[in-house]
From TrEMBL:
Keywords: Cell membrane, Heme, Iron, Membrane, Metal-binding, Repeat, Signal. This is Cytochrome c. PROSITE patterns: CYTC. InterPro entries: Cyt_c-like_dom, Cyt_c-like_dom_sf, Cytochrome_c-type_DH, Membr-bd_ADH_cyt_c. Pfam families: Cytochrom_C. Its main location: membrane. It is found in: Cell membrane. Residues 433-455 are annotated as: Disordered. Residues 1-29 form the signal peptide. Coiled coil: none annotated. It comes from Acetobacter sicerae. The keyword Iron applies. The lineage of its organism: Bacteria, Pseudomonadati, Pseudomonadota, Alphaproteobacteria, Acetobacterales. Residues 36-139, 183-298, 322-412 form the Cytochrome c domain.
Length: 477
């Protein structure tokens, strides 16, 4: 998309913005003819993936209406087109900044932290000004009223959110790298912790839905893997060689973010939206900076040691010796044609199951979900084919799905518990209508991997936001 937004453009933007006050009126805050600033704002909007969350399924770009499920009810993204009645057309730059970086609407009420303003709090003033210019002058106004939140009183009251923000959200302050930081790594840190808001999905949340860490100073929790989001698990982005990115190279990360597929992984679920609607449009420099930063993060403990491939499963399947291997026959009949007997699959088409971090996660939500419901590799400019995996919920019964998932999780050297039951799969089917887990808060301790398996926990580490996923429904906008 837009490339080469480098120092020369930055200097021009600074000059153009000299003397512009944050409280300027919408008509005067930016020059509608300033195409460079609007273009920069369009790119910043891609960095923040604004379009995916602020576009309903089958909806008009930026007009809002996307359902975001929470453990207390559903909320809906808002219209951020410049329509003066239903959108943000009446917002001044100061109003816009308060919403994006402070989490405060124009009417003074607090935003739900499904809007990742705790991450946007560290965005630069220049990026905010460019983003404002884009939404005011580069986006067509759409007259579409916002949907009210589907949350019952008293939980629907917004005033407690202001206290939440003061307790858990960082104070808005433009990101400043630590002295001596490599400029490329610093740019990557800004992208990951700021507009890219990667931690919103990939960092576990605490007792009040706050991210447990907003940067590497927070220790191993930062980007350590999130809770179920629309029945997908966001895995760790840290150095763990089994559960994280320990075996990924910088080139792997660049290619994955650009195309959604590499030889040993593929994007699906919410990450498919991120790639299709956002990161495929990032510049080469920004992709490289992101990869370099992620690989520069301090090492974390190896929760499952190192991965070593075990050929015994492939040998047994090749020989047809599946007796006593529960789920193996289902795998051979339904899965092996794409993922092969050796679990290695087909490079950049079908992801491998052997040693796959998603497969060996303590929480098997993602792998069970994709077996039951299927998934789609998003088409991108770099990989235009839309590769789909069919859902097996109408072909296999609950027990068969559980058996094959447990087989996959314990084969080829995968070190994961065979902890999926037919009851879990049944709940997963029901979760296609609602991901909310209605079990008692005290049914099981939060440390067990089966607690909250196929829906966010009503309290604790699984407390999360679950926006609807566009992948397989809408083309990227």
């Amino acid at each position: 998309m837009i490339k080469g937004l480098k120092a020369a453009l930055g200097a021009a933007v600074v000059g153009l913005l000299a003397g512009t006050a944050l409280s300027a009126s919408p008509a005067l805050a930016q020059n509608a003819d300033d195409s460079d600033l609007v273009a920069k704002g369009a790119y910043v909007a891609r960095l923040g993936d604004c379009v995916a969350c602020h576009t309903a399924l089958h909806g008009t770009a930026f007009a809002g209406g996307l359902q975001i499920k929470t453990p207390i009810g559903a909320i809906y993204s808002t219209n951020i087109t410049p329509d003066p009645k239903t959108g943000i057309g009446s917002y001044t730059l100061e109003d816009f900044d308060k919403a994006v970086r402070h989490g405060i609407r124009k009417d003074g009420s607090a935003l739900y932290p499904a809007m990742p303003y705790p991450s946007f709090a560290r965005m630069s003033e220049d990026d905010i000004k460019a983003l404002y210019a884009y939404f005011m002058h580069g986006v067509a106004p759409v007259d579409q009223p916002n949907k009210p939140a589907d949350i019952s009183w008293p939980l629907s009251m917004r005033w407690p959110l202001a206290f939440w923000g003061k307790m858990f959200a960082p104070a808005p302050k433009a990101f400043t790298p630590a002295p001596g930081t490599d400029p490329v790594v610093a740019r990557g840190e800004y992208l990951v912790t700021g507009p890219g808001h990667c931690g919103a999905c990939h960092t576990p949340r605490g007792f009040s839905m706050q991210e447990k860490a907003y940067d590497a100073a927070g220790g191993a929790d930062f980007l350590g893997g999130g809770a179920p989001i629309d029945n997908w698990i966001a895995p760790s982005l840290r150095s763990d060689p089994v559960l994280g990115l320990g075996r990924w190279s910088e080139d792997d990360l660049v290619q994955f973010l650009r195309s959604g597929r590499i030889d040993h992984s593929a994007a699906f679920g919410g990450m498919a939206d991120v790639v299709a609607w956002s990161t495929q449009y990032w510049s080469e420099d920004d992709l490289r900076a992101t990869a370099k930063y992620l690989k520069s993060l301090p090492e974390v403990p190896k929760a499952k040691g190192d991965y070593t491939y075990d050929p015994s499963t492939a040998q047994a399947l090749d020989a047809g010796k599946t007796a006593g291997m529960t789920g193996a026959d289902v795998y051979v009949q339904q899965c092996a044609i794409c993922h092969r007997n050796d679990g290695a699959a087909v490079d950049r088409m079908f992801p491998p199951l052997a040693g796959n971090p998603v497969v060996v996660s303590e929480n098997p939500t993602s792998v069970a979900h994709i077996v039951a419901a299927g998934g789609v590799l998003p088409p991108t400019n770099w990989a235009p084919s839309a590769v789909a995996m069919p859902g097996y919920q109408k072909i296999l019964n609950d027990q068969q799905v559980a058996d094959v998932v447990n087989f996959i999780r314990t084969s080829w050297g995968n070190k994961a518990p065979a902890n999926v039951t037919a009851s879990d799969v049944s709940k997963l089917r029901q979760a296609s209508q609602s991901v909310l887990d209605r079990r008692s808060w005290t049914d099981e301790p939060t440390s067990t991997s089966s607690w909250g398996l196929f829906g966010p926990q009503p309290y604790g580490e699984g407390w999360t936001f679950s926006p609807d996923t566009h992948a397989g429904v809408d083309n990227p906008q």
